[in-house]
Amino acid sequence: MIPLNSTSFLLGLRCFSKRISNDSSRRHLSGSVKLCAGQLMRWCSRTSNTTKEHDNSSLVLKHLMAKIKSTGPISVAEYMREVLTNPVTGYYYHRDALGPQGDFITSPEISQIFGELLGIWCVSEWMAAGKPKAFHLVELGPGRGTLASDVLRVFNQLGSVLRACEISVHLVEVSPKLSETQARLLIEGENCLMHDPTAAVYKTGVTKTGLPISWYKDLQDVPNGFAFYLAHEFFDVLPIHKFQKTKQGWREILIDIDPQTPEKLRFVLAPSATFASKTLIQRDDERDHVEICAEAGVIIHRLAGRITEDGGAALIADYGHNGTKTDTFRGFRGHQLHDVLTAPGTADLTADVDFRYLRQMTRGKVSTLGPISQREFLKNMGIDVRLQVLMKNTSDPTAHRNLIEAYDMIMNPEKMGNRFKFFALLPQSRVISQEAKLEKRNSTASPIAGFSELQL
Predict the structure, then answer these.
(1) Residues with Cβ within 8 Å of residue 429, at least 6 apart in sequence
(2) Which residue among 26, 420, 436, 452 has the highest number of C-beta atoms inside a 10 angstrom radius?
(3) Residue 269 burial (10 A CB sphere; 0-12, 13-18, 19+)
(4) Are strands 330-333 and 420-426 parallel, antiparallel or unpaired?
(5) Is the pLDDT of residue 332 over 70?
(6) Closest-CA residue to 351 (of 340, 367, 366, 343)
(7) Around Cβ 12, how many Cβ atoms within 10 Å?
(8) Is 269 helix (H, G, I), strand (E, B) or coil?
(9) Phi then psi for 211, rounded to 5 degrees?
């Protein structure tokens, strides 16, 4: 058990780090793949079936043009929804876009330490909550399942701490392609897997560490209960509405067919106020260009409600801002910036997360922490301690170099270290107890892992 004062809490993190597997060869950076400046944390290598992509792009473009001709210009949110998650032609439905040969790479794919520390964060908050007899691990948008795999490995190797706790795993994933990839990584053999594509729980099985695991397409279908919700690079791909301030007031930016080039799309301003521009924009917003993700607001509101009613916490890691940025909508293809309106369906579409908006959408039901930089969060979680453990337990120079390169990628302020942010939702009682601790040194409240500066 980790004692509850700050000094011994960090010692507890050291202990956890030493008890986790010392295998540092499971995943590493390829020496031939380096980060290119200005690529917004995307790598610069690519191999793809260009003919197949061209055919898919043509189908998506024809579909979008038919829709626009039928109903008029569409919102950016509708465009993103069709391009990314259309069941027939959607970008995420039929490809694995992660990795050096895809369109982007994420921190869990770069370094195993990232996921391990998030696993420790869950254990830390479980202990701070009084060690409930059961909890759900819920991940929104699990990618290849790498983060979940690293977290579950931590749970398994801290079995002496969690032995009396009943844990279940719940993955919210809309992509059939990615859910297959996740199942191959997390489950021991297809014979353990049950499929029912029409059901709310469309896939179930048992993880390699013996935990029940289920897949869903919507957070609403995940069963209630004390839970830890992880969302890593999930909110940045949710559909956004874009608005421009004009002399006539706020006008929504829409997407239309370019009359000069009928096979191309263009941005246009709505001639009058739309329902979105009337209902989504905050009156006190002083920016002249705003991006709002209403879907993210709905999800955050649901998470806040679940945490208030059932307990638990949510940890969100994404690139974003605190209500200060304006035009961040962009595309990535082959780790290169890509015009968002060109060849739709062949590139990832993304926009920075507005954490101020997420905070507002909790409606005060929970306390929020952050956003703080990924570098600060991982430092507080003891990433340097964990790196030292892995370095100490291997004498292979190549392994050392790989560990250091991965650490530099996720921690360097010029790379992912400052670009990505961490943001948490916690029960109000959890933060109140932490504030009381600061006022009374003898309080038994434990520090909030990752968001507290822990020093020996």
Answers:
(1) none
(2) 420
(3) middle
(4) unpaired
(5) yes
(6) 340
(7) 23
(8) strand
(9) -100, 145
CB within 8 Å of 162: residues ≥ 6 apart? 123, 126, 155
| Cα 103 to Cα 273: distance, rounded to the nearest angstrom | 36
CA distance 344 to 57: 5
> Who's near 340: CB < 8 A, 6+ residues apart?
329, 330, 331, 347, 349
Those residues whose C-beta lies under 8 Å from the C-beta of residue 237, and which sit 6 or more positions away, are: 80, 84, 92, 141, 348, 349, 350
Helix (H) or strand (E) holding 214: strand 212-216
Quote the CA–CA distance of 382 and 177 in Å, as a whole number. 35
pLDDT of 16-68, one tens digit each? 655 665 655 455 444 333 333 333 333 333 334 444 555 567 899 999 999 99
Q: CA angle 247-327-78, nearest 5°?
A: 90
Find out whether 39 and 336 touch, Cβ atoms under 8 Å. Answer: yes
Alpha carbons 114 and 106: distance in angstroms, whole number: 10
Is the dihedral angle over the CA atoms 308, 108, 404, 375 positive or is it negative? Answer: negative
| Cβ–Cβ under 8 Å, residues 374 and 453 | no
Residue 254 phi, psi (nearest 5): -115, 175
- Class of residue 322 by CB neighbours under 10 A (exposed 0-12, middle 13-18, buried 19+): middle
Name the more confident of 210 and 9: 210
Residue 137 burial (CB < 10 Å; 0-12/13-18/19+)? buried
Residues 289, 254: Cα–Cα separation, whole Å: 13
Q: Compute the radius of gyration of the chain from its Cα atoms.
A: 22
Angle of CA points 167, 171, 172, to nearest 5°:
140
**Is the distance from CB of 326 to CB of 333 less than 8 angstroms?**
no
